[in-house]
From TrEMBL:
Keywords: Signal. The keyword Signal applies. This is Periplasmic binding protein/LacI transcriptional regulator. It comes from Streptomyces sviceus (strain ATCC 29083 / DSM 924 / JCM 4929 / NBRC 13980 / NCIMB 11184 / NRRL 5439 / UC 5370). It is found in: Cell envelope. InterPro entries: Peripla_BP_I, SBP_2_dom, TAT_signal.
Length: 333
């Protein structure tokens, strides 16, 4: 286990940093704080850059760290858990003050989190949760309630169906997020809760598969959906990027997105609002990516030994198609 005692630790740190450089992109920001106090060094491991939401999240973290005067060591895991684990071990070896990361998947973190705890480096989760046998291995989660987002998606679909005057069976195609990722698991769970409780007789998910949160994945999987289930009349996409990719396949099949196939997605990125303003997405459940300022505030409190809430939730809204044009100018990401 990594510690801070001797030369061997430094050697391990160099090796870990070298491994990380080979499998993930890392950069450091040499910002310094004013007033002569010791600059907080934050090690942050991002999932990747799979979507517009993720890019906005990364920009928010970087800009907030710069504004706070923190020394940010940033790593892009390229959607690979092994890269994140390497990054976290590198941060431990570098003796950063706080480690934050957005987990690629929910499981498989106990070993590296125990290493961080042994090194007395607090860990903050951002955006996504983990499943761990020891809740003390991380301090807090800064992010959304994905299960509630799934419920909200089902509730807003009720409004979409009513507005469209839909009668009869609702045959739903579901584009899932990355397999094993918290938002994919929890959004599907929340949506199904409402469906099973209130629509067991008329709603059915006839096909469901991961599109890996990417436009390319959404396009490819939706094309396959339409071949195997050409009569689907609703698409529930776990994020806007997959919905936008799916729209391309729906149009290629000679159908009208937003009419022949009603679409509800989650995120609220600008491109999603553009598609909604064009009538191609019917409703969007917002998931706010601008977590940077909240994260930096939490990092400061954690570094100072202050108590923080176990889960710091973001504020979000829901949007119907007729709200898209008015809301579009407010989309900064």
């Amino acid at each position: 286990m990594l510690n801070r005692r001797n030369f061997l630790t430094a050697a391990i740190g160099v090796a870990a940093a070298g491994t990380l450089a080979a499998c993930a992109k890392e950069d450091g920001d040499s910002s310094t704080s004013s007033g002569g106090s010791k600059t907080i060094t934050l090690g942050f491991s991002q999932v990747g850059s799979e979507s517009g939401w993720r890019s906005a999240n990364t920009d928010s973290v970087k800009s907030a760290a710069k504004e706070a005067g923190y020394n940010l060591k940033f790593s892009d895991a390229q959607q690979k858990q092994e890269n994140q684990i390497s990054a976290i071990r590198s941060y431990i070896a570098q003796k950063v003050d706080v480690i934050a990361f957005s987990p690629v998947v929910v499981t498989g973190w106990d070993a590296v989190l125990k290493e961080a705890k042994a090194a007395k480096i607090p860990v903050v989760l951002t955006d996504r949760s983990v499943e761990t046998s020891d809740q003390s291995l991380y301090v807090t989660l800064v992010g959304s309630d994905f299960t509630d987002e799934g419920r909200r998606a089902a509730r807003i679909l009720e409004k979409v169906l009513t507005k469209a005057g839909h009668k009869g069976a609702v045959k739903i195609a579901q584009l899932e997020g990355t397999t094993g990722a918290a938002p994919a698991i929890e959004r599907a769970k929340g949506f199904k809760e409402v469906m099973d409780a209130d629509h067991a007789d008329d709603w059915k998910i006839v096909v469901s598969q991961t599109g890996d949160f990417t436009r390319a994945g959404g396009k490819q999987v939706m094309a396959a959906f339409l071949q195997s289930n050409p009569d689907v009349n609703v698409l529930f996409a776990h994020n806007d990027d997959m919905a936008i990719g799916a729209i391309q396949s729906i149009e290629a099949a000679g159908k009208k997105p937003g009419k022949d196939i009603l679409i509800v997605s989650i995120d609220g990125v600008k491109d999603g609002f553009v598609a909604m303003s064009e009538g191609k997405i019917n409703a969007i459940v917002e998931c706010n990516p601008l977590l940077g300022p909240q994260l930096m505030d939490v990092v400061k409190k954690v570094k100072n030994g202050e108590k923080v809430e176990r889960w710091i939730k973001t504020k979000e809204g829901d949007f119907m198609q007729d709200q898209a044009k008015a809301a579009l100018p407010t989309r900064k990401y």
